[in-house]
Amino acid sequence: MENSRLEMNRILHSGGVRFDGYHAGGCHLSAAEVISILEPMVSEVRQVRIGQVISERTYSIAPVVEGLVNTGNVSAVMRTSEGLGFQPFHVIRNEVKFKKSVRTSQGAHKWLDVSIWENTPACTAGLKAQGYQIVVTYLDDGAIPLSEIDLTIPTAMVFGNEKFGVSEAMLAAADFTAILPSPGFVQSYNISVAAAMSLFAAHDQRVKQFGRNGDLSEAELIRLRADFYMRSVNHSEDILKRHLGV
Amino acid sequence: MENSRLEMNRILHSGGVRFDGYHAGGCHLSAAEVISILEPMVSEVRQVRIGQVISERTYSIAPVVEGLVNTGNVSAVMRTSEGLGFQPFHVIRNEVKFKKSVRTSQGAHKWLDVSIWENTPACTAGLKAQGYQIVVTYLDDGAIPLSEIDLTIPTAMVFGNEKFGVSEAMLAAADFTAILPSPGFVQSYNISVAAAMSLFAAHDQRVKQFGRNGDLSEAELIRLRADFYMRSVNHSEDILKRHLGV
Predict the structure, then answer these.
(1) Predicted confidence (pLDDT) per residue in A188-227, tens digit
(2) CATH superfamily assigned to domain A59-210
(3) Any idea where the domains of chain B sit in the sequence?
(4) Under a CB-based contact definition with an 8 Å cutoff, are residues B158 and B170 in contact?
(5) Touching B: A residues 131-150, CB under 8 Å
(6) Is B209 part of the contact surface with chain A (CB cutoff 8 Å)?
């Protein structure tokens, strides 16, 4: 079983900026150029698979985990997010010491645009600047049922610490606090279950509204394909640098 | 943290038969009589809480776990089921050796009608005799999207072994094999996530169709309240036996 602490360290390197071509040594390759250079090194089966995946991708739902202690929970939410086709993923650390877990993301982090934030206000400011509404799943008297919130507009869906929930700073930034159905004696779900229900609900609303989850423009599809080729091909950066002669 | 192996042993004693009054020594107390005897020993807060819970209960969705190895996964699915208000719960053992887990059901099993089956055909025959359609979540070419299956009729929702999925016997008995949305590179979800999505979908369909999840008749509400009083009051059987003079 993979060590999730290592996995988290790897995630820290992948960055969360949307790919807009390859830059090195003052030179630039467009996404289309990256595709034409790397495509011979991507098997046809893989090319088709990448095409299927990006056709169902969206940036409109941005899952956010805040202050999680258990790396296994982070990995579980990543796996759900990637599986459903949500491309961005935000991790707010808030100086939490991670507790290792044997659960892994099953490689999901490799295919997500993961952003790591040191604290909450930086993240929420970033999300708001990008036009996302912020929806926090939270058990609170003012919370409204998740099913009553419009998840077909750009929405950041926030899941808080295993024990303490989301921070005051996150609650202050939230547009909505949402509650999941829980009419039983058990009045809370664990993070991976709450995230599964919430993200499934968002996917479901989107499919019912638009007929599908994927909503990338032609230009975005090209950029994401180029990005995925870079993630697929071994030493892709070296290959592109050689091509640029830098 | 509680030992889940012990927890499973306890579950084996709770049975899965729907309560229809208390029987002992050839005598019988109706559900209404059980309520009137035990109610003085149930706090008012608890009485109200039980009333809220049973008003949102249904027998129409019957979660089934088949051949799970990890007791933590069984507990996680129980917790989700209880939280959403589904009263029956079926565990098919199929001679599996349980692997202990630190995760617990958070007491959810106490409030479910848990049936333990030694093998699959006995369980599926029992479910069919009770009028349930059998829906298996399964990644297979013939599978149809879960959202296209009517979950507003009595439905057993089956989740299979962590590694091998459901058995051949279960597939043979299934009315539908259902697929969850998974357009990403990650092509499967773990059991607790798949169950969370599937059971949430069932709850959602029921609320959209009927306005609520709960659907018990007055008689069923009385029987379930009596059953929950018995589960709430310490030594409730001794108290009822004393009352009967047996």
Answers:
(1) 899 999 999 999 999 999 999 999 999 999 999 999 999 9
(2) SPOUT methyltransferase, trefoil knot domain (3.40.1280.10)
(3) 60-210
(4) yes
(5) 147
(6) no
Average of per-residue pLDDT values in chain A: 89
Chain A hits for B46, Cβ within 8 Å: none
Q: How many residues does chain A have?
A: 246
pLDDT in tens, B75-105: 999 999 999 999 999 999 887 677 777 667 7
In chain B, pLDDT over 70 holds for what percent of residues? 90
Interchain CB contact of B112 with A (< 8 Å): no
Q: In this structure, are residues A32 and A218 in contact, taking their beta carbons and an 8 Å threshold?
A: no
**Does the B60-210 domain belong in CATH 3.40.1280.10?**
yes
